[in-house]
């Protein structure tokens, strides 16, 4: 499978060629289950421990993702004379979303992730989505970036399960090293503390 390469590196969108809109729809929906909404609601109703929610979602999402919404755009857009086939989804994992929400609720702008299966004017079929780490790194909060990178890796594994080549962008980011602990100092305290080039941790 191939991926379009005409996007700027700063573009968070990733687009991959798929065998057909409806064929890939069946494959995609078989790999990603729907959110077990009734079970989630039951946990909330009885104020269950969050650990029970974590266990439910882990057991429900074999590839780390669930569908929160599935939408067929074709009937509505076809009514206006647009022939292109298109389906769009909200796909995510609210356990991972919570790990970011605690730092900045605005992450819900990008969680769940939006994905689209669509048809171009020549009849070619594509799968487009936004790279998680690019979106969440935009908040400039290391904890959010780390979860975004984890989502990149989970997304790469899902694409592999769907028999698609994971784009190299999903492997490019690495988590920032942990900050120095209170037991650590540097060997060159006279250098600007914000940019201790050449310094090494010393315990």
Question: What is this entry, summarized?
Answer:
This protein is of the alpha+beta class.
The CATH superfamily is known as TT1751-like domain
CATH topology descriptor: TATA-Binding Protein
Strand tally is 7
> Which percent range fits the helix content?
25-40%
What is the helix tally? Answer: 8
Number of domains: 1
Strand content: 15-25%
Could you give the order of strands across the largest sheet?
1-5-4-3-2
Can you describe what's shown?
With 203 residues, the chain is of the alpha+beta class. It has a single domain (13-202), classed as TT1751-like domain (TATA-Binding Protein). It is built from eight helices and seven strands. It has helices at 21-31, 37-45, 50-60, 74-79, 94-101, 132-137, 142-161, 169-172; strands spanning 13-18, 66-72, 86-92, 113-119, 125-130, 185-186, 201-202. Strands 1-5-4-3-2 form a five-stranded antiparallel beta sheet. A hairpin with a 5-residue loop joins β4 (113-119) and β5 (125-130). The radius of gyration is 21 Å and the shape is globular.
Helix and strand topology:
Layout: E1 13-18, H1 21-31, H2 37-45, H3 50-60, E2 66-72, H4 74-79, E3 86-92, H5 94-101, E4 113-119, E5 125-130, H6 132-137, H7 142-161, H8 169-172, E6 185-186, E7 201-202
Antiparallel strand pairs: 1-5, 2-3, 3-4, 4-5, 6-7
Helix pairs in contact: 5-7
